[in-house]
Design a protein that fits this description.
Number of helices: 5
Oligomer: single chain
Radius of gyration: 13 Å
Largest sheet: none
Order of helices and strands: HHHHH
Strand content: under 5%
Structural class: mainly alpha
Number of strands: 0
Distance between the termini: 19 Å
Helix content: over 70%
Length: 83
């Protein structure tokens, strides 16, 4: 999904949006941490691709909070790098 958003070809944002929606809607056990940390990151990047800076900041901040709460160092670095 990140590659699609980075590439930014005509249909890429729509494809990324559909993939994020499928991930969010997929059945999962309660508390599936991997999904819970990736969704706000991907939604932030999607919001940025749409030019929605308010939503971007909201999802970015959620991503930072989750990464910090879970003490996931790699995600904490990625989240800190998001302007």
């Amino acid at each position: 999904m990140e590659t699609l958003l980075d590439r930014g070809a005509e249909n890429d944002v729509g494809e990324a949006e559909a993939a994020i929606a499928r991930l969010a809607a997929a059945p999962a056990d309660d508390g599936l941490v991997i999904r819970e940390i990736w969704l706000p990151r991907l939604r932030a990047l999607l919001a940025r691709a749409h030019g929605d800076e308010a939503a971007y900041r909201d999802y970015r901040d959620r991503y930072r909070d989750i990464a910090t709460c879970l003490d996931f160092e790699g995600h904490m670095k990625w989240a800190a790098a998001m302007p």
